[in-house]
Amino acid sequence: MKILENVLLKELTTMRLGGAAEYVIEVEKKEELAEAFEFIRDKNLAVYFLGEGANSLGRDEGFSGAILMNKIKGIRILEESEEGGEKYMKIEVAGGEIWDDVVKFTTGRGLTGIEAMAKIPGTAGAAPVQNIGAYGQEIAQTLETVEAYDTLIDEIVEIPKEKMNFGYRKSIFNSGETRGRYFIISITLKLKRGEIRQPFYNSLQKYLDENGISDYSPKSIYQAVAAIRAEKLPDPKEIASAGSFFKNIYVDDAEAERLEKLGVPIRRGEAGRNKVNTGYLIEAAGLVGKSFFGFKVNEKASLVLINESGKSFSDLEKAVAEIARVVKEKFGVSLEKEPVEIKEN
């Protein structure tokens, strides 16, 4: 376990903003967690859990507390099984593993279930927190259990998927009274041998068609998604951003009809759960490629904000407010940001 002092949040997050954190604690083994939390409690510190910093935003005032960073590594195969003629593999992934390395590990073994989530930045431990997803796949579909340190009782616990209250970019780990309660040590995934189910999302199908690809194996889909993301999305290691900055919007049937009359395409769902592509709203509002207070709406993926010259979280707040204002005036809907701020719960 490493304990560092006065580390700038802009050095820990991909949007590269934020003042100093009082402490940064790097945990490399789950056995170190009890010691880490003893240190935190002895000093009466607020705590924030961080992986690669791809979905977290540093504030100008920094963080008066401890950033607990997950550096626990390891992937292991737990078991292989056969059910109803289908073959499955269950794997345990340490929370500090880079998510894309996990996708490579599984697709290299012919396992389907997470291949469409190729190149999503961040760690495996962060994946269940916001129920990451892409091109029709979500971590909730393959996740079995989470091993976590429960800060309320100071014990390592196992949480089944049924108790994680998954929703769109939502779970018990980032919402409600349990937000910030669990430090995720490892996740267990159950993946099937085979191919991703069709129909594919339009952008993925378009890429496959344009490139004459009829191989839908996990490795092939991984490569296709990786190519699409490389073309549209800036690498946060090279260009400061926080990935998709705005969440897509879900509306009831009445709101869907209102938006359709304005020309907004709607992906109709069950029980009045209809999806609005926020990227479309931003594009239709004429915001693509425009800069606000040093932050630019990415030309190729309008959900992404790029930090071109922004120096402060205050500048980011003003940029987001301006983008939200324009979209609200044109379409009457409110935008919600996806990244979370590093602050006390």
What's the overall average pLDDT, rounded?
Answer: 95
Helical run tally = 7
Total strands: the figure is: 21
Question: Distance between the terminal alpha carbons, to the nearest Å?
Answer: 24 Å
What is the CATH-assigned architecture of the largest domain?
Answer: 2-Layer Sandwich
Overall shape: globular
**Could you state the order of secondary-structure elements as H and E?**
EEHEEEEEHEEEEEEHHEEHEEHEEEHE
Give a quick account of the main beta sheet: strands, pairing sense, barrel closure.
Answer: 6 strands, antiparallel
CATH class of the largest domain: Alpha Beta
The gyration radius over C-alpha positions equals: 20 Å
pLDDT under 50 segments (min length 5)?
none
Reported by name, the CATH topology of the largest domain is: Uridine Diphospho-n-acetylenolpyruvylglucosamine Reductase, domain 3
Overall helicity: 10-25%
Report strand %.
25-35%
Q: How many structural domains in the coordinates? A: 3
* Classification by helices and strands: alpha+beta
